[in-house]
Structure to design on (528 residues):
């Protein structure tokens, strides 16, 4: 653990996901993953500034008429 | 000037000779297979070469053409497919150890359509493991090497496709593109690579990386050849839930029109940030050439392109980890180190992160479509840098910087050769168009190619 709150949070999150979901993660894999996760998750959450309440997710599923 | 060697023929050149019965599909296939035998020990573009089956298909094509049954411009043309496409009776590994023994009992739809068009399958091409990376430094089947400098990567994930087409180990190839995996190897290997509109080409029978970002498309030496391949594989397929039921135009015919009057937006900001000066110089010269073809150019910006890259990363990582969730728990050691690390990272996004990224996708699509109200095509380098060394850090974040936003938007985008660095490495120009307007993108690219000869250069092999 470090004194950086974001890094601390990412490490806690990685540990929780690994323990909760059965993701096999030994100590050697843990550090680099937590370091990478901090930046990626922060960037993903920062996308919030683009959104309006009415912004819907892009559609993937579509109904189609029979060809 | 002497006639080109058979392996150097474009698809169009070979097709014209085959149709006139001046060239035998067997001789053509033999010539390309000989090239594979001589060079693939170094390049490692193929995972599987199906020599006997290829010659049998070539003999069948020869009989049909001799009997007056000419199926069209791909009849008797030797092609190869990224080893992510299911092929009936032929091992399909996805570049992985996990699928090393998989022999499908069906063909992917794109493969089936090329087979129906009379194409000859030479084999299955090397790729980044599960298409999840851009170097094609495959830990299970060996690294694929760039024909222009074999110490360098061909890019990826369709690296075998780019290397094979550039080196004359196939006249054309199929690839897939989730964040740039057709356009990046096309740019780094000096060939043409087209990512069509999302839904334009069926992904049935293609091992997925990320369902909402995956595209199938061709790599070839010329824009015309790419158009011929696209025409064969495009169109609705009820077996692909994302397939679009949109009419398929005559792409090759669309190339006959000139590019005069087309409006091109030359992207700045995100699409020049971090670029190698030689890449920027090649692109500036290419823009001038486009202007010389009658294309009207102006500067353009996509303010949310960086956010689009962030959203695409979240979506790709999340979807890939969903697909691989069980295998990552049961057989984690069977993945290569970089792919395993990406799959682990993808487990960390929450459902709300994924949905936020899909909402940001909506914002970006609106922005880019609004820009395409003003322009017919958008122009940018395909990659910020030329081919990186095989032995080096992971260049993924840099190489997908310009390509990935257009996977998020699902727009048609092509990379065409637009120059070389002083070290002799190819540079690619990317042209992006409106949904289902591949013909416009190809027309602009063909006009450019008609005014340049970068695509005629061959690697020093």
């Amino acid at each position: 653990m470090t004194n950086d709150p974001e890094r601390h949070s990412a490490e806690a999150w990685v540990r929780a996901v690994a323990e909760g979901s059965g993701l096999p993660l030994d100590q050697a894999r843990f550090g680099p993953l937590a370091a990478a996760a901090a930046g990626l998750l922060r960037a993903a959450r920062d996308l919030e500034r683009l959104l309006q309440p009415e912004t819907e997710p892009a559609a993937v599923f579509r109904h189609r008429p029979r060809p | 000037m002497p006639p080109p060697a058979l392996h150097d023929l474009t698809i169009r050149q070979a097709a014209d000779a085959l149709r006139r019965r001046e060239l035998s599909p067997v001789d053509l296939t033999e010539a390309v297979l000989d090239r594979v035998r001589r060079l693939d020990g170094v390049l490692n573009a193929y995972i599987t070469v199906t020599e006997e089956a290829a010659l049998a298909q070539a003999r069948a094509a020869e009989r049909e053409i001799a009997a007056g049954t000419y199926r069209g411009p791909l009849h008797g043309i030797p092609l190869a497919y990224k080893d992510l496409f299911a092929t009936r009776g032929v091992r399909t590994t996805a570049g992985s150890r996990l699928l090393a023994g998989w022999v499908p009992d069906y063909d992917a739809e794109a493969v089936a359509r090329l087979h129906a068009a009379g194409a000859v399958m030479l084999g299955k091409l090397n790729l980044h493991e599960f298409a999840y990376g851009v170097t094609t430094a495959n830990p299970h089947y060996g690294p694929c090497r760039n024909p222009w400098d074999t110490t360098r990567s061909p890019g990826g994930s369709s690296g075998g496709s780019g290397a094979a087409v550039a080196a004359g180990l196939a006249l054309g190839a199929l690839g897939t593109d989730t964040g740039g995996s057709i356009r990046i190897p096309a740019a780094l290997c000096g060939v043409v690579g087209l990512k069509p509109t999302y839904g334009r080409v069926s992904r049935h029978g293609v091992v997925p990386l990320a369902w909402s970002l995956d595209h199938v498309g061709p790599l070839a030496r010329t824009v015309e050849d790419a158009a011929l391949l696209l025409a064969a594989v495009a169109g609705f397929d009820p077996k692909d839930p994302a397939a679009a039921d949109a009419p398929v135009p005559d792409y090759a015919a669309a190339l006959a029109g000139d590019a005069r009057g087309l409006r091109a937006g030359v992207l700045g900001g995100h699409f020049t940030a971090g670029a190698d000066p030689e890449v920027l110089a090649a692109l500036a010269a290419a823009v001038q050439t486009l202007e010389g073809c009658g294309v009207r150019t102006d500067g353009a910006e996509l303010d949310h392109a960086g956010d689009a890259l962030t959203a695409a990363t979240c979506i790709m990582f999340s979807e890939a980890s969903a697909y691989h969730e069980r295998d990552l728990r049961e057989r984690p050691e069977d993945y290569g180190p970089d792919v395993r690390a990406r799959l682990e990272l993808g487990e960390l996004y929450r459902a709300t992160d994924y949905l936020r990224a899909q909402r940001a996708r909506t914002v970006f699509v609106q922005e880019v479509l609004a820009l395409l109200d003003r322009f017919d095509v958008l122009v940018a380098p395909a990659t910020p840098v030329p081919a990186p060394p095989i032995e080096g850090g992971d260049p993924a974040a840099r190489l997908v910087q310009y390509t990935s936003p257009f996977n998020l938007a699902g727009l048609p985008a092509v990379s065409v050769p637009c120059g070389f660095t002083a070290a002799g490495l190819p540079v690619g120009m990317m042209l992006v168009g409106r949904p289902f307007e591949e013909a416009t993108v190809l027309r602009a690219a063909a006009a450019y190619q008609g005014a340049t000869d970068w695509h005629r250069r061959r690697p020093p092999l």
